[in-house]
């Protein structure tokens, strides 16, 4: 345990919510690993979300501020009040570009170490967003990103020294994505015929995931292959629009939409190929999950995806937005099951070697300790 005298060192994470999502799950896994070493608190600027119960089981305190927007600068006073009473040694803000209230409050409250986070290539940011982030960066000691692509993009966008960014890749419990369930029973439950290859996508229905491209890929693939079915896993605001398009094109019997849940491993198990069609990505958890499940992957070569997939060895990377190019790559894997299996097996090896939770936790712990030492916190 990291203590100064009898006091365990304290860390406070600031995040919009502990809803079920990739960033939120990564945080919970990080906290599990850090629990023996740090006293932890989480501030949710919005609602707390269902993962808050998992955090409390670790002995952490959760505050939910119910703010409607990350732009609410009154948040600073409320967060600063918590910091003054809790007195963390480290604040780590994961606020997706709106961390100014949190990091400024941390400095005003005398927090020794302030860390920010970047988990995406924020191409959506306008000038006002970038200027606010640049103001926030004046208060931070380090910015942790989950891929080199995000670090390079943020350094250029925010005009901050690349040395300020620390890359720590996501970690995954790889074996949790292997299933013992009977694939035929899973297909029966989902209404997917046994004679069809299943092409899947695991992604929230948001514009950046580009389900419109996925539908065009499906159309191009159906022109090449008769016995193929498409499984879309995820929730999000645009799923009704996407399903309307599916019905309008007369494909209702070729598509299944399923909301991700605890049986995600069973869903990966029936996929012949997993597709990522995103316009932009940081380090997508769905790719790591599919790798862990030993599924062959055809993925857009965007953001940090090439840091996860080695083209032709653990999957196929696509530089084009042409659906026919994707369809040809998918068709190649479906037509060559030995090649597809070899790529899936190689991906599984990499997931278990390079992207473990223990490695992710260890690198965070090491970075936190270096920052604490830099600020002589051990003498407090």
Task: Give your account of this protein's structure.
The chain has helices at residues 22-34, 52-56, 75-86, 100-108, 127-137, 148-158, 183-190, 211-222, 239-248, 264-269, 285-292, 323-335, 337-354, 357-374, and strands at residues 3-4, 7-8, 10-15, 39-44, 61-64, 90-93, 113-118, 142-145, 165-167, 197-202, 228-233, 255-258, 273-276, 297-300, 316-318. Helix content is 41%, strand content 17%. It has two domains: 3-171 and 356-379, 3-Layer(aba) Sandwich (Rossmann fold), CATH 3.40.50.2000; 174-354, Glycogen Phosphorylase B (Rossmann fold, 3-Layer(aba) Sandwich). Helix 8 (211-222) packs across helix 12. The model has no long low-confidence stretch (mean pLDDT 92). A seven-stranded parallel β-sheet has the order 5-4-3-6-7-8-9, sandwiched between helices. The chain has a six-stranded parallel β-sheet with strand order 12-11-10-13-14-15, with helices on both faces.
